[in-house]
Amino acid sequence: MTVLELRGIVKAFGDDVVLRGVDLAVDEHRVVALIGGSGSGKSTLLRCASLLETVDDGQVLLDGEDVTDPRVDADQVRRRMGVVFQAYNLFPHLSVLDNVTLAPTVVHGRSRAEAVEEARALLDRIGLADKAAEYPDRLSGGQQQRVAIVRALAVRPRVLLLDEVTSALDPELVGEVLSLVREVAAQGMTIVMATHEMGFARQVADTVAFLDGGVLLESGPPAQVLGEPQHPRTRQFLARVIDAGRL
Ligand SMILES: Nc1ncnc2c1ncn2[C@@H]1O[C@H](COP(=O)(O)OP(=O)(O)O)[C@@H](O)[C@H]1O
Ligand SMILES: [Mg+2]
């Protein structure tokens, strides 16, 4: 079953055409790693998928429903997706616990007691139960990103969209965030993640999709796209990544 489908997504900023007709289908319980150089359109694609940007052409389907139809309430749709960015995901003026319970209570109308219980269980799972009352600036970057991920999960999203969630972190903090993503994936969450962590993509993703200049040039199982890339641009990109020590 396809949870998220992008059909012919076109997006321009002024004269700058950033996405040139991208098709991508993400099946339930699958992990898609979106790779590509800086400026290739990964973030824009995730922002279009989560309706944080309007598309100029094409459709986003969530559980088969065209959610880019102007008659659809975009706020309602966004509530069915979890989105985590590179950094600054948490509300700095709210405690860790309140960060995690805010959307479930205010947006989804769950009782405070139920939301708190679930938030505490989630924080416990990531070993941060003792940080519930702290403010985000008292946490390391890795802890903040893990809280951001469980906060996104707290609304029980249909799909989790992760945009380079480890790239703003000090190298020693990357592992703890990737472990959490791995665990969330193993539990069956449907995930689309833009990442520069090729080793992680190879291990965790079911599909690797290579974006280049707003075109999805190549996609398939990690062994194929990372191991035997068909397109010269993919090979070039991977060679650069290997040089940077990330494969
Ligand atoms: N809000 C925006 N306004 C204008 N240009 C943008 C905006 N967001 C992204 N872009 C441009 O779109 C292109 C793709 O950016 P982005 O999606 O961030 O790529 P990536 O995430 O792969 O690095 C870049 O050229 C970037 O400058
Ligand atoms: Mg980006």
Automatic annotation (TrEMBL):
This is Amino acid ABC transporter ATP-binding protein, PAAT family (TC 3.A.1.3.-). SUPFAM superfamilies: P-loop containing nucleoside triphosphate hydrolases. It holds the Pfam family ABC_tran. It is a peripheral membrane protein. GO terms for cellular component: plasma membrane. The keyword Oxidoreductase does not apply. Keywords: Amino-acid transport, ATP-binding, Cell membrane, Membrane, Nucleotide-binding, Transport. GO terms for molecular function: ABC-type amino acid transporter activity; ATP binding; ATP hydrolysis activity. Its main location: membrane. It comes from the Bacteria.
